[in-house]
């Protein structure tokens, strides 16, 4: 047991030559990717004859030659080093047989899966597992000593022959069904909840932990029917497939230690069930109309600027929406939330479908009412403050969760138990998957975008652009990439919702590329406010694109992609002016993330000098607005680096003032300075011709 706090076996390097304090010797080092820094082992210190002293000045190492090294001077200054109680991370011992690599032309499970993989990925957007292909024998969270001792003595490092009956494709993922021998079955300790299998792929909505129960469920399914393909079966009840092709592999038996969340990222904390069982049953909502009753809450009243009754007729809705909202209205009336009444006021109801479930929520169009409300807006807590105060430990998080749920129950509220996500390393919220590393697009949202049909009308296109725009920050140059699609809407008119769109090869390619980019978009990282921020900005085709990122040891970490359209006034100006106007908009859109921390802007423009010069082509009012942003104290402009916003730089660093004057001329040979010398009256009819020397001559 060492730095990890758990028992594990690690490899040694071959003897390597080292030189320390004029001493030369060979030493084999212990290798582990889990160590946060290079550690000097006791065995090497003994070879060197070094002594260690822990003092108020830090760790002092003394060599036989008399040289003294203070190891604390390079690790944050002096201080007294004290022993503390070791805190072992929550984890488990896992015993598995890892499949060995196949030879070219082999007949193993991995080769079979590679043949079927294109078809498998057409069924659902399955993702590869985080672990190498293996057969799990025992997932031990209670340190079963007898199993560990027996495994290390009899099995570890040995090779098993593993037989698979075929590949099974289900909702949770894709597995190779393993048929263990009687001797092998004695080591299988996964209980009655799973069956032996090799995980080949996992559905984004599920986790590796779900594939064991899926394998057992499919093994017990009896409605498998043969298809036209030999050895290929389908189950209608499970919506699953079987590829009945036996394979043979070899597996090396291994013992590893993993974290508690490994393969269980979408599972609540082990203490969550007990927490929920301790809470009153009346806290949980029985359905969408079981909303509870807050008897202690006072009435909410509003003051209007105009008390003239507002009457807006109901929108025409589809019959499916009308039928879907009827159950909701009847349920709310039965619960006492809605009461029938007669009034001179009326605003329309807009039924909104819940994620293609056939159920509708009741949205109320209160825009006209909001326009005459005079009561000041109620203050609400800042979400950032709430998120930054999230407890760091699971125990604190569980205690805070219990406190919040108990308070809601005392106030009369009800909670949907199925929507709770307690102490998970990843949570899904509003179409996003949020973790400590950052945020990504949820698999449901990706699937909705990827399978969105080709828009036929203006209304369909506006719906798709709204769906895609919700995740615009995950792909670069969004405004530029959707320009052709928006032009299709402009041609018909944005109010002509039923008008059919005119598709071309270019617009179809744009539509397909945009869907693919969003479906495959990478996650965005969480900002680290101990590091500086960087911003790359480019302007092209009247759109401004930006990339906000930070730097770490692995390279650039993307925080946000931005893309905006310039307004009609800005589009008429020279390129340097358009760039300055777009840069200000990008800076304003990143301010909520940067929050005044140091920000370096990579640019080939002399932005500050140009906006302050007489050559700046915008009005004094716009000029003043730009300067207010460009003079923020946290900004630094530089010309060095690679601009990620346009992949290739817009050009060599230049003086925007000179470039703008040149671009503003109608003709390059026109001058605003008066001619010197004798005054001559010249007459011309406006025509000109180019001489053999290339000069323009008027006549």
UniProtKB/TrEMBL annotation:
Entry superkingdom: Eukaryota
Pfam families, A to Z: RT_RNaseH_2
Domain called Reverse transcriptase/retrotransposon-derived protein RNase H-like: residue spans: 503-601
Full protein name: Reverse transcriptase/retrotransposon-derived protein RNase H-like domain-containing protein
């Amino acid at each position: 047991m060492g730095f990890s706090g758990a028992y594990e076996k690690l490899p040694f390097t071959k003897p390597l030559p080292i030189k320390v304090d004029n001493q030369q010797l060979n030493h084999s080092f212990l290798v582990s990717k889990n160590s946060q820094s290079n550690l000097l082992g006791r065995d090497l210190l003994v070879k060197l004859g070094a002594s260690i002293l822990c003092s108020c000045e830090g760790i002092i190492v003394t060599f036989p030659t008399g040289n003294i090294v203070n190891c604390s001077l390079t690790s944050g200054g002096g201080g007294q080093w004290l022993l503390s109680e070791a805190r072992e991370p929550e984890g488990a011992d896992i015993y598995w047989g890892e499949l060995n690599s196949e030879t070219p032309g082999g007949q193993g499970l991995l080769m079979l899966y590679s043949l079927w993989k294109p078809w498998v990925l057409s069924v659902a957007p399955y993702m590869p597992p985080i672990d190498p292909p293996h057969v799990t024998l025992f997932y031990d969270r209670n340190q079963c000593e007898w199993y560990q001792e027996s495994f290390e003595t009899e099995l570890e490092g040995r090779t098993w022959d593993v037989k698979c009956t075929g590949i099974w494709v289900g909702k949770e993922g894709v597995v190779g069904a393993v048929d263990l021998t009687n001797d092998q079955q004695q080591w299988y300790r996964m209980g009655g909840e799973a069956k032996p299998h090799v995980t080949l792929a996992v559905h984004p909505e599920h986790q590796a932990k779900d594939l064991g129960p899926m394998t057992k469920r499919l093994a017990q399914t009896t409605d498998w029917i043969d298809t036209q393909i030999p050895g290929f079966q389908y189950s209608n009840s499970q919506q699953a497939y079987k590829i009945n092709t036996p394979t043979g592999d070899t597996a090396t038996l291994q013992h590893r230690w993993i974290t508690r969340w490994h393969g269980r990222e979408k599972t609540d904390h082990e203490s969550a069930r007990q927490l929920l069982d301790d809470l009153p049953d009346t806290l949980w909502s029985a359905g969408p109309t079981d909303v509870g009753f807050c008897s202690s809450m006072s009435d909410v009243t509003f003051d209007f600027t105009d008390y003239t009754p507002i009457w807006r007729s109901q929108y025409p809705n589809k019959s499916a929406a009308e039928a879907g909202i009827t159950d909701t209205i009847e349920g709310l009336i039965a619960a006492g939330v809605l009461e029938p009444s007669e009034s001179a006021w009326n605003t329309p109801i807009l039924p909104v479908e819940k994620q293609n479930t056939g159920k509708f929520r009741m949205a109320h169009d209160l825009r006209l009412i909001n326009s005459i409300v005079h009561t000041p807006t109620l203050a609400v807590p800042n979400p950032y403050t709430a998120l930054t105060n999230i407890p760091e430990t699971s125990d604190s998080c569980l205690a805070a969760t219990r406190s919040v749920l108990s308070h809601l129950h005392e106030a009369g509220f009800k909670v949907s138990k199925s929507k709770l996500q307690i102490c998970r390393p990843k949570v899904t919220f509003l179409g996003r998957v949020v973790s400590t590393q950052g945020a990504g697009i949820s698999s449901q949202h990706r699937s909705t975008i990827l399978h969105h049909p080709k828009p036929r009308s203006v209304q369909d296109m506006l719906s798709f652009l709204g769906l895609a725009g919700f995740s615009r920050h995950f792909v670069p140059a969004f405004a530029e990439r959707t320009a052709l699609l928006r032009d299709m809407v402009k041609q018909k008119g944005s109010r002509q919702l039923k008008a059919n769109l005119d598709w071309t090869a270019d617009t179809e390619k744009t539509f397909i590329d945009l869907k693919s980019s969003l479906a495959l978009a990478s996650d965005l990282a969480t900002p680290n406010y101990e590091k500086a921020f960087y911003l790359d900005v480019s302007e092209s085709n009247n759109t401004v694109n930006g990339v906000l990122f930070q730097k770490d040891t692995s390279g650039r970490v993307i925080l946000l992609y931005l893309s905006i359209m310039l307004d009609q006034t800005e589009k008429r100006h020279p390129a340097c002016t358009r760039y300055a106007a777009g840069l200000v908009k990008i800076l304003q859109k990143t301010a909520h993330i940067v929050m005044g921390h140091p920000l370096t802007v990579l640019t080939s423009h002399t932005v500050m000098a140009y906006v302050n010069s007489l050559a700046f082509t915008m009005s004094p009012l716009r000029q003043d607005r730009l300067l207010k942003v460009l003079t923020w104290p946290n900004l630094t402009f530089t010309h060095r680096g690679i601009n990620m916003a346009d992949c290739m730089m817009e050009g060599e660093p230049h003086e925007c003032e000179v470039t703008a004057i040149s671009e503003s001329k109608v003709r390059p040979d026109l001058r605003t300075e008066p001619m010197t010398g004798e005054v001559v009256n010249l007459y011309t009819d406006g025509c000109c011709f180019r001489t053999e020397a290339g000069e323009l001559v008027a006549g």
